[in-house]
Design goal:
The structure is a homotrimer. Chain A is α/β, with parallel strands linked by helices. Chain A has five helices and 41 strands. The longest helix of chain A is centred in the C-terminal third of the chain and has 26 residues, at 331-356.
Chain lengths: 359, 359, 359
Amino acid sequence: MSEPEGALTVEELAALAGGRVVSGDGRGVRVSRVASVEAAGEGDVTFVEDAKLFDAARRGRASCLIAPTGSALEGPACVIEAERPKLAFALAAAALQRPRSQRAAGVHPTAQVAGGAKLGEGVHVGAHAVIEEGAEVGEGARVLAGVYVGAGARVGRGCVLHPGVVLYEGVTLGERVTLHAGVVVGADGFGYVRDDAGVYHKFPQVGTVVIEDAVEVGANTCIDRGALGETRIGRGTKIDNLVQVAHNVQIGERVVIAAQTGISGSTVIESDAVIGGQVGMGDHARVLSGAVIGSQAGVLPGKIVRPGVWWGTPVQPLAEYKRLNALWGRLPRMREEVEELKRQVRELQSRIGEEGGER
Amino acid sequence: MSEPEGALTVEELAALAGGRVVSGDGRGVRVSRVASVEAAGEGDVTFVEDAKLFDAARRGRASCLIAPTGSALEGPACVIEAERPKLAFALAAAALQRPRSQRAAGVHPTAQVAGGAKLGEGVHVGAHAVIEEGAEVGEGARVLAGVYVGAGARVGRGCVLHPGVVLYEGVTLGERVTLHAGVVVGADGFGYVRDDAGVYHKFPQVGTVVIEDAVEVGANTCIDRGALGETRIGRGTKIDNLVQVAHNVQIGERVVIAAQTGISGSTVIESDAVIGGQVGMGDHARVLSGAVIGSQAGVLPGKIVRPGVWWGTPVQPLAEYKRLNALWGRLPRMREEVEELKRQVRELQSRIGEEGGER
Amino acid sequence: MSEPEGALTVEELAALAGGRVVSGDGRGVRVSRVASVEAAGEGDVTFVEDAKLFDAARRGRASCLIAPTGSALEGPACVIEAERPKLAFALAAAALQRPRSQRAAGVHPTAQVAGGAKLGEGVHVGAHAVIEEGAEVGEGARVLAGVYVGAGARVGRGCVLHPGVVLYEGVTLGERVTLHAGVVVGADGFGYVRDDAGVYHKFPQVGTVVIEDAVEVGANTCIDRGALGETRIGRGTKIDNLVQVAHNVQIGERVVIAAQTGISGSTVIESDAVIGGQVGMGDHARVLSGAVIGSQAGVLPGKIVRPGVWWGTPVQPLAEYKRLNALWGRLPRMREEVEELKRQVRELQSRIGEEGGER
């Protein structure tokens, strides 16, 4: 097997991943790819965290295994120990890069780059991409096939825009932002004013979108421009596929939002919140830092969601939700108990009546 | 600052927006853009509706302020009074147009327009757009980069198709329809017939889609073609991002549908209904004119939703939903009360038993 | 009317659709299209299943009517009887093909096909499509305008990729797979590892996607690649629009999934399951063969859903859900009953107290 580009020695990898080589020839063995314990072979690095999987890891054929500190595993060619093997593995993967990220610099002859657009050094522009007047694409960014970068939009250094991404005019991406295929940034927000005849007139949607550094956005997600102000996604935030982010939404840093969640206009999600999938949030709500909202939950308009774990529609603290849900499941029993009580009370009444004589 | 194209005098704007200049040099001052009270500067028009914001509006630097009739505000260069300032502001914005709407007429050299397609006067066809045989694009329509207009599809006058829109063959758009990036119109509906071996065979999806005048559809929304008949969206209806409209759905005029709502096959939504986000509707349901359905609600197949406000799954009148939801929150209390009653009744039984002697 | 291509005699059609000509000149009459009873005219085949519609079918102007065995209908030019007319109609439609499926073989001059890509015989590649290095497209497949086929991806014989589809590198489609416009296959799964400073590092998403034969996927649906392993969709499975399939999900054969459903990572859906719209499934859940899950239901992480019909969040057997839902609606009545019981018990207590004297 010829040595793949990007290969690192195990010792180099350990340094980058925050671990320590404890077994094997760390300077001689090279790795170039990540793989699961089962699938890993020569040139691959894998990891194990759960002691139940140590045996499988020992039997594996990886060139390098990342294992928990003190696990004293042997077996594959080399072992790196790390406090948090999964994190070290993620860092290792980032160091090894994937081939698909390695696009040659240059503009494909079929791409349409406006005369007034500015491309930084090492930029890749794929086939049939369109970059309009006044747009700027930073150093090393990769604008893949069929991407549309609207007039005056700014794409920071090292961004990756997968095929079919659409940036409407004037939106801004920071550095190392990744947008997956079909993402739409900066379409008009959904705002209308109804006149007395019932006709809807569009409220102007002339604001913009700012996506800060190191944000990743999943396929076919939509992030609308602000009506008059801006929609903002903070640094390091990660958004899954098919998510809806409405106009003027403000999302902080290091927020995680799972697939198909929808966030209505002007809602604020503070830094370090975690939002499950298919969650719906009304407008002008506020999710405080440290809040975790379970999948399919519903946040009413204007609601403030405090730190802690929340669930259900409308959202409640998880403990409360569980308690209510358990009672919900016991409703038939409660129904029977009430019927039994009614029967018993009728009997008591009749006996008292008999005994007491009155009524 | 050079005078921007499209600028209007405040007096012209007042006439178009249905207001009256009450202060300032309405003939001399020109505006060209809309902005928020805080951001507005020279050349901008803004609006204020809430008396709490009058002070901020007075201090603003807009060239023109639209304020409620009788508010007698002064401060920015010019003041227009209107009965409904937000509506007047929306009308003003429409009059001022956004630059991105102003695309030069002409067909980009990379666009592929079939010999048999017909383009009206002043049509803009962007880079890499494809217009197939027999398609027609009406006067002044803008078919932006990368749009696909299938064979025989018709695009009415003044439509705007944002990058990446796909029209399958034969669908029809009325005049001034706006489709945001990634909208798919006319994909096959989801219909199969299962044979005795469990294999699904496609039920033909050979109908079409008709979208009437002045409809706006948000990014990545999907509107499927009818199976044998048509899917229809009525005049002036507004649909948000990531909405699913299944085959043979009939939507009336001036309907509003928020993001991520899904409407199953053959369901009818009558004119002037309002549908929240993430609502799900089963097939063959009917939403009557005047019904308002809250976000995340679920409408069962075949259900008729009458005028009024509805909520929950399955949908209930809002008042009923609120009442039930309050009781739901009080279930733990009710549970305790039932336990207390059981205890009390047991005690009564035992005392009666003692007293009465029998049983 | 000139004879359309693809026309078949009614007798040929009956053989292909599993029916029997019982009336009319089955060898002389030719049909080429499917239509509804009301819209059908010369050259069209239609069907009727419900006896209530027999009269309308008799009055129709179709060239051919498919009717239930033994219905002895007459009227249109020809009648085919079949055990299951709707199924026979679906098979007839497949035999007649739609014109839009008939794309001339060849590569459009604007398409970009890498030197190392392999195209089978009769392949159609539309305008502005991109096929990267090492990709393979099987015999007769149609890669429509603007489609992106990533490096090393494999597209089986007879596949149809509608405009704007994006296949990331290395994914595999079996034979006769249909992907509607805007489908994204193989984008990165949503997986991160948080470090002690709260920063999210991407867990490698370097697995792949395998879609087996005869799968159909609706517009703008997203199917993510496996993190280290693969995401798999089994033969004959049908997926609607705007569905989210996360990394490492395993979907069996002949599964049906309606629009806007979301399936979290590593969840397994066994063959022949049926999933409604807007369903949410947590990760590592398992839906067993024969399970039917109603729309908007929520499946908790790790949950096993057994055969039968399920509903609600968290999912419950439909019968249980209905029972609980009915009790939910009767909560106000139960509340009143508990209040009445409290009143009665107080009265009993007071009377016993009076009578008994003690306490």
